[in-house]
Amino acid sequence: MKHFRLLMTSWLLVSLLLLNSFGQNETQIGLPENAIKRIGNGIFSHIAYSPDGKQLALAASIGIWIYDTDTYKPLSLLTGHSDTVRSVEYTADGKILASGSNDGTIRIWDPQTTKNIAVLTGHQNGVTHIAISGDSQTLASVGADEKFVRLWNLNTQKPIADLKGKFNDIRSLAYSPDSDIIAAGDFDGTVTLFSTKKKKRITSLVGHILAPSDITEPGSVLTLAFSPDGETLASGSRDTTIRLWDTKTTYHKVTLTGHSGSVTTLVFSPDGKTIASGASYTHWSADSSIRLWDAKTGKHLRTIVKPAFTRMLAFSPDNETLASINRSNAIHIWNTNTGELKVDLTKQRVKSKSKPISVFPDGKKEIYANNDGTYTLLDVETGHKKPFLKGFHFSTILFNSRSPLRQVFKYSPDGKTLAIQDGNSVRLWDIETDSHKATLLGNLDSILSIKFSPNGQFLSTAGRETIRLWNTQTGEQIATYTPDHRYHAHGFLPIFSPDSNLLATPTKDLNMVQIWNTDTGHPQFLFMGHRWNVRSVIFSPDGDNIVSNCSAIASLWDAKTGRLKASFISPERLRFSLRFTPDGSALVGYAKAPYEDRGDNRIWIWDTQTGQQKFILKEHKGRITRTLFAPDGKKLVSGSADGTMRFWDLETGELITTLEEYDPNSPIAFSPDGQTFASGGENAKILLWDLNTGKLKTTFTAYNPVRRISFEKDGKTLISSGTDGTILLWDLKETSK
C-alpha cells in the first residue's frame, strides 16, 4: 500500500504541474459527482469537425471532448457512456452529434446545449463504427464481432433494418453523401456496397492485394471515405495501399501507393480536391506519415511526417486545416497548404519539449531527456529547472520505436544517490552535487535488475548469468555469484533483508536459496530441500524469518540460524500467495494457480515463531483472489470469486463482517484510520464501506473501469485511476458526516 500510494502521489504531483500550463478549468470540466479534480483527458480514438467548423469533437475513453476551433480550448466534456467512445459524427445540418461506444450504445447529443437527446440500444457488443447519411436522417452502426450493419432513424431513434453480408469482421464504414449507398470494409480485404433504399447488397469490391504471407490480416480494409460528390469511394488497407473506386460503375480507378505501413485513416477535403491519409505501425514497417493526394489523379502532393502513428484524421470545412490523432495520444492541427503544424494541443498542456524519463520517489523532482542529449532536473512544486547529469551520456540506445525506455533509474533510500542502468554497467550519481560517483563494471551481459539495500549501503545487480553485490560508497564489488544462465526466467531476483545484513539469491540448481552476508560477501546459509524451482523469497518485516516459495510447498526459515521451522503444502499443487503480517508475528497465505482462474477458498494463518498453524479461514465459497492488511495490522480483508469481501480478526481468526457486491479483480484500499474501506470495479463504480457498521456509505461513478485506488494520508481524498490512466480525486468530507 505504501509503495502504491507513493506511485500515485508522484503521478499526481507531476500531472498537476503539467495541467497548470493548460489552465485549471480543464481539470474541472465534466467531472463525475463528488469528484473534485481530474488529471488526464483520456485516450482519444476519433475526431470530427462540426459542419460550421466552430467545434472539434474528440471521442475519448472518458467521454466526448468539444473544443473551440478558434482558441482550441475545451468547451465541454459530454459524459454518459460507461466505456470508451469509439466514434463521433455530426449530421450534415449540424443539429446532432452521435457517438458510438464500447458500452454497446449510441448516444444522440444536441451540440449546442450538450444535452443527451437519446440512447440507442440493441447492439450486443461495443459499437465500433458509426456513419450518418448526407440528409441527416439515418445513422448506420456496426458492433464488434457482429456481421451486419444496423440502420437507425434519427427522428424516431428506432432501428430500421440490418444489412447482412458475408462478413468476417467489419473494420470500416462509410455513408455516401446522397444517402443511397453504405460501404463496409472487411478484414478479408473486400468492400461491400449496400443500397439503403432496397436494403440489399449491391456488390463487393475486390482488389486490395495480400501483404506478406505471415501477416495475420493481410488486406484488412481499415478505412473508407466517399468523395463529397459521391462519385468516388476511397478504401485504405493493411496492404499499405489506397484504392479509388467509381461508385457508379464499381470499377477500380487508381491505386495510391507510398505508405509503407497500414493505411488506418483517410478523408476527403470538403471541396473534394484532396485526400488525406494516415499510416500506422506494422511489424514490417514503422510508417508514421500523413500524406496528401490529388483526389482526381491520385498524384502525391505532400507528406507530413511526425514520429508517431496516425490513428484518425479530419478536415475542417474550409479545407485549410487537418486535425490528427496519433498513437501517442497527441492532437495536431496542420495547415494543409504548407504542411506546417499550426497547433499542438499536447504542447499546450506540456510546456517542456523534452521527454520525462524518471520521477523521484517523493514525486517532487523529475528528470527530462532533452533532444540535444542533455538532461534537465525539474522541481515539480516550483517549476524551477536546472541542468542535470552533466557530462553523462548513455552508451546504449535510449529509445527505439518498438521498445520502452531501456535504461533503469533507481534511487537510494535516502534520495541522495541515483543508480543508472546502462547496458551491462551501472553508474552511481550524486544527486546533490550532480557528479559521477562510480561506474560498476563486471557484468558481461545486460543487467535485468538493480536494487538498493534498505540502508542504501549496498547495491545488487542481476544479469542473465551473474549476480553481483556492490558497496555504494566506494563502488567496490563485494561478491559475485553465478546461479545459472537461466535463473532470471525460472527463479527469483535477489532480495535484501530489512536490516540490509543479508541478501537472498537463487542457486545454480534453482531449487535452493543462498543467503549471503552483505558485510563479508560470504555465504551464510543454504536453504535446501525444495522439490521444485524456488519462485519467490520474502523476508518478514522484523527480519527474523524468511519464506521460500516453490510450486506447491512454502518453507519458513529462521533468518538468524538458518533453521527450517516448518513447511506448508498447498492443496492440489497450487502455488501459495504469501505475506507476513506487518509486525512479522504471523504468515498469511492462500493457494492459487498462476495465470489461471483456479484456486482454493481457504486462507491459512501460521505463527512465525513456532511455525504452527493458528487458523484456517474458510467462510468463502469461491477461490481467494486477494488479501490486504488493515493499517493497524490486526485485521485482514480477503476478496473472493464468490463476490464477497470478508474481514477477519487476525488475533482470534473470527469473521468480523462480510461485504457483498465485490468484483474479484477490483482494487481495494483501507483509509488511514482503518474505518473506511474502498473497492473499485469493472463497472466504473467505487464503493465506500463503513467498517464499524458493515454498511455501504456511498458510491462514486468514474468514467471507466477502475484499476487503482488509494487514500491520501489525511483521509480526506480518495485517488482513483481508470483503464486509460485518467486520475480522479474524490472528496470524502461529505461521506464522513
* CATH class descriptor of the largest domain: Mainly Beta
Q: Specify the structural class.
A: mainly beta
Largest beta-sheet characterization: 4 strands, antiparallel
User: In terms of per-residue confidence, which ranges show pLDDT below 50 for 5 or more consecutive residues?
Assistant: 1-24, 211-215, 348-354, 397-406, 485-490
Anisotropy-based shape: globular
Strand numbers in spatial order across the main sheet: 1-64-63-62
As for the CATH topology of the largest domain, it is Methylamine Dehydrogenase, Chain H
Instruction: Give the mean pLDDT.
Output: 86
Rg over CA atoms, rounded to whole Å, is: 29 Å
Number of strands: 64
- Going by CATH, the architecture of the largest domain would be 7 Propeller
> What distance separates the N and C termini?
26 Å
Classified in CATH, the superfamily of the largest domain is: YVTN repeat-like/Quinoprotein amine dehydrogenase
Strand content: over 45%
Short description:
The protein is built from three helices and 64 strands.
Description:
This protein has 737 residues and is mostly beta strands. The chain has three domains: 57 residues, no CATH class; 328 residues, Methylamine Dehydrogenase, Chain H (7 Propeller); 136 residues, YVTN repeat-like/Quinoprotein amine dehydrogenase (Methylamine Dehydrogenase, Chain H), CATH 2.130.10. Helices cover 4% and strands 47% of the residues. The chain is built from three helices and 64 strands. Strands 1-64-63-62 form a four-stranded antiparallel β-sheet, covered by helices on one side. Strands 2-3-4-5 form a four-stranded antiparallel β-sheet, with no helix packed on it. A hairpin with a 4-residue loop joins strand 63 and strand 64.
